[in-house]
Sequence to fold (308 residues):
Amino acid sequence: MANTEQQVWFNGKMVPESQAKVSIFTHALHYGSSVFEGIRAYDTPKGPAIFRLKEHVQRLFDSAKIYGWSIPYSKQEIEQACKDAVLANGLTNAYLRPLAYIGNVGLGLTPKSTVCDALVAAMNWGSYLGDESLEKGVDVCVSSWNRLAPNTIPTGAKAGGNYLSSQLISSEAKRHGYDEGIALDVNGTISEGAGENLFFVKNGVIYTPPTTACILPGLTRDTLMVLARDFGYEVREESIAREAMYLADEMFMCGTAAEVVPVRSVDRIDIGTGKRGPITEQLQTAYFALIKGQSEDKWGWLDYVADP
Ligand code: PMP
Fold:
């Protein structure tokens, strides 16, 4: 390919990345006023398909609504932009980053215009916690930083500013030699990882912290709850005490970027056998088969990039 520069959908047009310029007065740069998504496309026997595209785009619009901002494109236009970004970059497996932000509306905290600028970038990106983590699992710690309290910054919105909290959690964990940090919520019960939701298995029942535990209600979390119930497991959204986590038989974390990752230890305490557990493996296998189009898509979650 002569032109290998990445193509980005930027305010309605596909342009080379070097032409997608923003002002130094971009409101989001100064005040964190952006909302975004992380979406993956996988190569399937019927060509690249974007997993749960509609739900991700809906969450982008919901995040903007929480802040009172408008995205001056329809959901269908953003969905098409995601597909076009995969195609324009010749990708088969892709990580997609739609972003809507308050642009150069002048300084001052309250934006003078609440109409967002928008972009969609697409790139190759391996599993967020490392490809080997999928089988071997990761070692995590409980962060000294709590997750955002619900009456401070809403964790149900996927906003740029929220990720200052995530950066504190993950960088502290890495500084102390862990793969990832997980946080407690404002009540001291388990919330989520820096960029992942959490699941626990105890006596064959699957538990995950509820949406009131200051989490981002992840689409991978939702997918795994549906898959687990389809296998006949009982899945409970319940608040989880820190000590119950140490006593779980299995634990795993999940997210679009991280995919489904076993947790082998927390705070250097082995979870179960300290290896990927059987229910984790079963759900992980089912998840990868689904996103790669190798099992029946009963829920209509695969959105093919090129219409057949
Ligand atoms: N929690 C946080 C804080 C996240 O950043 C993510 C990644 N978007 C998740 C959970 C998982 O969400 P999803 O499965 O929708 O990617």
About this structure: Residues 201 and 279 are 8 Å apart (CA to CA). The domain at 133-291 is CATH 3.20.10.10 (D-amino Acid Aminotransferase; Chain A, domain 2). Residues 38, 166, 192, 195-197, 216, 218-221, 255-256 surround 4'-deoxy-4'-aminopyridoxal-5'-phosphate (CB under 6 Å). The longest strand covers residues 94-101.
